[in-house]
Amino acid sequence: MASLTVPAEVPSVAEDCEQLRSAFKGWGTNEKLIISILAHRNAAQRKLIRQTYAETFGEDLLKELDRELTHDFEKLVLIWTLDPSERDAYLAKEATKRWTKSNFVLVEIACTRSPKELVLAREAYHARNKKSLEEDVAYHTTGDHRKLLVPLVSSYRYGGDEVDLRLAKAESKVLHEKISDKAYSDDEVIRILATRSKAQLNATLNHYKDEYGEDILKQLEDEDEFVALLRATIKGLVYPEHYFVEVLRDAINRRGTEEDHLSRVIATRAEVDLKTIANEYQKRDSIPLGRAIAKDTGGDYENMLVALLGQEEE
């Protein structure tokens, strides 16, 4: 379930634009007013605000926000204000610029989005960067990482619920044989993970556990980074809430908060399943996600995160 809260009676887009304009003017920026508007508008409403703001004031709202805000609060507001497909394109581009750990962001985008959302992200990437996501991923990765990531970001899976149980049985056997032999980057392993629907993979992995007495993830606990990438692939495809809980725990429960990871999860899931993720987080760590965030962050950044969690009144 989504955590985003939108008022029952939303002000007109013209009024929202006027209010945002007033937040930028005068002595200092009114961050509270910005949060009260942008953290409570859905993607379609935010898109209309951006269009109307540009038409009314001749300014790009994103550039205004960039000028007026700072640090982690600025980054969070900017990625939140983007359309979901633009946001994924931006996050993917940033990931291709960085060191190997950013490959997990590419896996996240490829595996936790719906087939259509991934296509839209690729189209937005192409429009934004004048090249394809596949092209950049192939250029910026090597070896087994490239072998897995390129087909993942290129995939267009069947999105329905129908499964072939005979196929699930056959492919669970293939996966068991390859993983038992530690042939983690075998072509067949990558083919199955990169092409099968989420429903089909779920059936395959259920059969794997029933037939071989162990969850496939238990057999992928090697410290090797490629194996960790395979784990992230499977979790993102079949257990996305668990995947995001792990990202949040890693971002919060450590010395020094990983703000980029925290912001990414909150911004990308607030309109999708953040309430479900927050419930799973509390089950895992026995502390509400909002409280954990409040302990590790502060100021306008904390206020924006908690607003997107739908927990401002707690």
UniProtKB/TrEMBL annotation:
The keyword Metal-binding applies. GO terms for biological process: response to cold; response to heat; response to salt stress; response to water deprivation. Keywords: Annexin, Calcium, Calcium/phospholipid-binding, Metal-binding, Repeat. Ca(2+) 2 binds at residue 297. GO terms for cellular component: cytoplasm; plasma membrane. It holds the Pfam family Annexin. InterPro entries: Annexin, Annexin_repeat, Annexin_repeat_CS, Annexin_sf, AnnexinD_plant. The keyword Repeat applies. Ca(2+) 1 binds at residues 24, 26, 28, 68, 252, 254, 256, 294, 296, 302. GO terms for molecular function: calcium ion binding; calcium-dependent phospholipid binding; phosphatidylserine binding. Belongs to the annexin family. A pair of annexin repeats may form one binding site for calcium and phospholipid. This is Annexin. It comes from Solanum tuberosum (Potato).
